[in-house]
Structure formats: structure tokens, C-alpha cells
Design brief:
By secondary structure, the chain is an alpha+beta fold. The chain has helices at 3-8, 16-24, 30-39, 45-52, 90-102, 128-145, 147-155, 190-209, 257-273, 275-295, 300-310, 346-349, 351-359, 365-388, 393-407, 412-421, 429-441, and strands at residues 66-74, 77-84, 108-114, 116-124, 159-167, 175-183, 221-229, 235-244, 321-326, 329-337. The radius of gyration is 27 Å and the shape is globular. Bound molecules: (R)-mevalonate.
């Protein structure tokens, strides 16, 4: 059998060990590959099984550092914030920014709203007026048919908030949409929303099939799809820091506080008018947000999709944060949609996500929104501060040097010598290699 056939024929049905063996046929040294991937299996078989079942075709675990940013003050409360991220310097930058702003009143945060959205996309060939007239009856039936699913959520204070009919027939023939808004309380709510939407889809078809006053074609509804929307502009949090510009004296020895504040504002304004800069600027925000989102078992792809769509809400992609300077008060704000959960899904299943939430004092979803957004603002502040003062590379390179030295398997002594040597020099892979070579043959 050829190698490729092994993969094609029933791969998903193989046991994990055999999947690993089959895959290993594609690398140069299969036994080394198998041994390495196996070395990342959890010793506790039960725990490993739990991880295997989060996904499919799992052959190993992929480790990413789990760090913490201590002493993050949000609305007067102090948090130790867990951050899962592979990029060196993100946790250090967030922690430094948290310390700096902790001494200037801390971070201020407020949740603006928690509405989530789902859509039933459908096509119907009748007259729009007929549909509009039937809408009150349709809505009542849809709600009645989902009462058993919404009952528990309603007891917790959530449920379906609204069902709106949107007419898109000018863009796609016969195409309408039910845009449904939800409050899913402390859960991210994807399963809850999608179950309701699929039930709506079925009920919509049943409803029309029963309308004997309509002609045959009008009794048919094509349900194109039913799915939540990851664009959640109304599930939004605002976080900000502020201080007198005099309190920014000393941030950089070459600019006084006021000049630094103005330069910082200019950098943020640039991100607002230029999408090339905006993408990088917002990426710096998501360095902080994603790290918390991952640490707490939430969906970082959903969170990013929402944020980047929101950043384009005015028909132009811009910065998610902004700066105001008025009467010498510098205020730096981030407004960002964040659909997060603190119950259900991976938040309860992943043992570390669970412990992250415990470390944060078992927050509500609203509190978690404020915490994640704060780390976004902290990282954004740290990045823009570095960029507008001494540049980004100095800080990054220290971490980069550590990573390169580890790649070369440097000893602790070599690491010490390298840190001293590269204090005032540019770090690159080849320079580090040269340096290690020099000390070996000195
Ligand atoms: C790197 O991960 C993030 C930055 O590029 C963000 C920024 O430029 O604002 C430093």
C-alpha cells in the first residue's frame, strides 16, 4: 500500500496510536516523530482522553505558555489575569502597562450591552405585504415552539429578545432574513442560539405549509441556513484609562508628559485613518484579549471576527481604540464587541479554563468582558508607547534572544554571556550563532 493510501482509507476510524504511526510515515524520521509527539501525551490517561475528545484525529497536545498578569486594577478591584499566548513580550507588556495604570487610578470599564444575534436566512416567493401581515402570527408560533428550549435561560434572566424580518429581495431574489436577538446570560450561547434558529427554520416551513389560503408556491419556504452571527456590535464593552498629562512626565526621557500624550494620540489617530496601520494596531489589542479568551476556554476566532467587523462599521477599517486630550486630561479608550461565556462549553470542560475562571474570582460573563478588554487596552498602550518612544525592537529582542538561545540549546552560562553581549547590539539568528561560536572557540 502506498503511503497516501494509508491516510485516505478510513484514517478517522484508526485508533490514536495507529493514526500517529500512519502520519509519521510522511516525515523523515518516523520513530523520532512518534516519540516526540507521544512525549506530549498527558501521563494521566483519563485526562488525555478528555483532551482527545475536544477535537478529532488528535495525535498529541500542543503546548502554549500559560502566564499571569498580576495586580490588574479594574473598577477598583485587583485581578490576577491568566494569559495563554505564545508570543514573547505580550504578558510582560500587559503587566508593565497594568502596573503603570494601577498607579494612576487603574482601568475603568463598563459593559454597554450583551445582545447576541442569530439569523434564519430564507427565500419565499410570495408578496412582501402578505409576509408582513403574517409576521405577528409567525413570531408567536416560533416563540411557542421554542418555549421548552428557552425556559431555563429565561429563569436566568435571558432568552429571545426580538425577532425582526429583514427584506433583502432587492439584492437576492426572494431572500429574507429573520434577525433574532438574544441574551444568553453567562454562557457564550452558541448552542442555545443555533438550536433555537434551527427550530425557527422548521417552524417557518410548517407554518407556511399549513396556510391553505396561499397558493402552492407560497406554501413553500426555502430555509437557506440558520446560524448565529459572530458580528455582535451590541455585545460590547468599553474600557479606558485617564490621567493628567503631567502624570505622564517621565514615561520617556525625551518628551514631557504633554508631548508624549500628543504623540501617542497621533499614533492612534493614524491607525484610525489607515487600514495598514489599523490592522497592526488592532492586532496588538487582540494580543491581550485573545490571551485571556484562550485562558478561559472561550472562542478567540469568534471574538476576532466580531472585532474586525466592528472596526469596519463605518465602511472603512479603523482603530478599535481612541484618544482624547481635553483640558490636559489624557483619556485612552477601547470599545470592542466581546461575546464571552463563563459557563458551559470548554469553560467548564477544560481543566485549566476552569482554574483560570477560579483565579479571576469566578466572574460573570460581563466581568470577563471587562477583564479581557482591559488586557487588550493594556497591550495596546504598551505597544503604542514603545512605538512612539524607544521603538518596539528593544523589548522584543530580549525575548527573541532567549528563544534563539533555547533553539541552540545554550547553557545558563552562555545565556548570561549572551545577555551581556547583546545589551546594546542587534539580535539576529546568525549573530547569536556567531556569538556562541566565538565563545566556544575563544
Ligand atoms: C506585535 O505583536 C504587536 C504590535 O505590532 C502592535 C502594534 O504595532 O501596535 C507591536
Amino acid at each position: 500500500m502506498k503511503k497516501r493510501d494509508i491516510i485516505k482509507k478510513g484514517f478517522s476510524k484508526l485508533i490514536k496510536e495507529d493514526k500517529l504511526k500512519a502520519v509519521a510515515e510522511f516525515v523523515e524520521n518516523p520513530s523520532e516523530f512518534i516519540a516526540l509527539l507521544k512525549s506530549f501525551w498527558h501521563q494521566d490517561e483519563k485526562r488525555q482522553k478528555q483532551f482527545d475528545e475536544f477535537s478529532e484525529n488528535t495525535i498529541s497536545n500542543y503546548h502554549i505558555p500559560y502566564g499571569v498578569s498580576p495586580n490588574v486594577i479594574i473598577n477598583g478591584e485587583s485581578y490576577i489575569v491568566p494569559m495563554v499566548i505564545e508570543e514573547s513580550s505580550v504578558v510582560a507588556a500587559a503587566s508593565a502597562a497594568a502596573k503603570f495604570w494601577g498607579e494612576r487610578g487603574g482601568f475603568h470599564a463598563e459593559v454597554i450591552d450583551v445582545k447576541k444575534v442569530g439569523q434564519v436566512h430564507f427565500c419565499w416567493k410570495g408578496k412582501k405585504e402578505t409576509l408582513l401581515n403574517l409576521m405577528p402570527e409567525i413570531k408567536a408560533e416560533l416563540l411557542r415552539n421554542t418555549a421548552s428550549i428557552t425556559e431555563k435561560m429565561e429563569k436566568r434572566g435571558g432568552g429571545i429578545l426580538d425577532i425582526e424580518l429583514i427584506d433583502f429581495t432587492d439584492k437576492i431574489d426572494n431572500y429574507y432574513q429573520l434577525r433574532v436577538t438574544f441574551n444568553t446570560c453567562d454562557s457564550m450561547g452558541a448552542n442555545f442560539i443555533n438550536s433555537i434558529l434551527e427550530s425557527f427554520g422548521r417552524s417557518l416551513q410548517d407554518f407556511f405549509a399549513r396556510q391553505e389560503s396561499l397558493d402552492k408556491e407560497e406554501r413553500e419556504v426555502e430555509i437557506v441556513m440558520c446560524i448565529l452571527s459572530n458580528y455582535t456590535p451590541e455585545c460590547k464593552v468599553k474600557v479606558w484609562v485617564e490621567c493628567h498629562t503631567d502624570e505622564l512626565n517621565g514615561v520617556y526621557d525625551q518628551l514631557d508628559g504633554k508631548a508624549f500624550a500628543e504623540k501617542f494620540k497621533k499614533a492612534v489617530d493614524i491607525a484610525n485613518i489607515d487600514e495598514y496601520r489599523a490592522a497592526t494596531h488592532n492586532k496588538g489589542i487582540y494580543n491581550g484579549i485573545d490571551a485571556v479568551v484562550i485562558a478561559t476556554g472561550n472562542d478567540f476566532r469568534a471574538v476576532e471576527a466580531a472585532g474586525h467587523s466592528y472596526a469596519s462599521r463605518n465602511g472603512h477599517y479603523g482603530s478599535l481604540s481612541y484618544v482624547e486630550i481635553k483640558d490636559d486630561i489624557f483619556r485612552f479608550t477601547l470599545e470592542v464587541p466581546l461575546a464571552l461565556g463563563t459557563v458551559g462549553g470548554l469553560t467548564s470542560l477544560h481543566p485549566l479554563a476552569n482554574k483560570s475562571l477560579e483565579l479571576l474570582g469566578n466572574p460573570s460573563a460581563k466581568q470577563l468582558m471587562m477583564i479581557a478588554a482591559t488586557m487588550g487596552l493594556a497591550n495596546n498602550y504598551a505597544a503604542v508607547k514603545s512605538l512612539t518612544t524607544k521603538g518596539i525592537q528593544q523589548g522584543h529582542m530580549k525575548m527573541h534572544l532567549a528563544n534563539i538561545l533555547n533553539q541552540f540549546g545554550a547553557t545558563e552560562e552562555e545565556k548570561g554571556l549572551a545577555a551581556e553581549h547583546f545589551k546594546d547590539k542587534t539580535v539576529s539568528y546568525s549573530e547569536v550563532e556567531k556569538f556562541l561560536h566565538t565563545i566556544h572557540y575563544a
